[in-house]
Predict the structure.
Amino acid sequence: MSVREKRKFETVDHRQLDHLRVFHDVARALTSNLELEPLLRAIMSQMEDFFGPEQWSLLMVDEETQELYYALSVGVDDSQFRGVRIARGQGIAGWVAASGNALVVPDVSKDADWSRFAAAHPELNMHSIACLPIRHGDRTLGVLQLNNSHLDRLPDNAISFLRVLCDYAAIGLENARQVKLIHHLSITDDCTGLFNARYLYTLLEQEIAAARSPHVVPIKQHFSLVFFDLDRFKSVNDTHGHLVGSRLLQEVGGVIKRTIGPDHAGFRYGGDEFVLLLRGLDKPEATALAHTLRDTLNATDFLTGAAMTLKLTASFGLATFPQDGPDMHGIIRASDTMMYVAKAQGRDCVAVADTSQPMPMPPPKNSRHS
């Protein structure tokens, strides 16, 4: 073997070892972490080390809207992409997501169409493009876009290698999605779409721990808890049957989610009883939101899609941490007790805990926390 051939062999062998190292690192990332963002960063860091793009972005497909959004970006100001949504078929990434085909232009100056595009958008400083779909089966999960990766200087099999990396990313994304789905199912009530009672205790523990922990930047160290149930719901089941009752609870869950918004959490505690965890709301703020939900429920015509019109009222009990309960069981007991007070006051009202007055306790047969 000549010296030239030996050097060429050593170069090829070195590249193959580099590829194997990256494959090993990516495979290890896939098997060691099923949380989405750490997983993506681990995979993308390997890609970045190998291809060295000036700019790269990972866009994910929103499963509800089927739009692309920027999940990770390097080499650009993240703020310019925050909140940006790209429809399928729109722009480079949108076309790749819609078609499922890769778009690779190693040198835009040698392509008439892309040369004109680059000239029309000098702010992009575009020299090369590599935009590949991340697909699992027949579904596009995301799009990987690399700008100015000097593809013309990389080995001939570089794009094939990038495709394999995208396949790895697709496996990781699908695994993380399945884990997230399983977790979601384990904490969600299947009738209303709200969280279940078991998850209430988890979030309460987290909220109390966060309120008690020291913070460099002051934060609101309180939250409010609302227990409420639907007045005379049993008559709905007795009159119309349990199937209608379940559909009614489903619509109530939708009203709750729309009214309290994403900053707070709603739970189905059991039967026709619900709980609201109102993060960061003091007593006046929480009371106002509880009244808003009460008024919304009163004003809503339920089951109109089933050729029915049912009206509902509810009885609400509200307490605020930490003044009304110093721990998880205390704040649950306080808000639950106030719900029974609301019922005793004639239903369809909001009863608010008041530490300046003795808290009336319901009879043991009615209270889970007596």
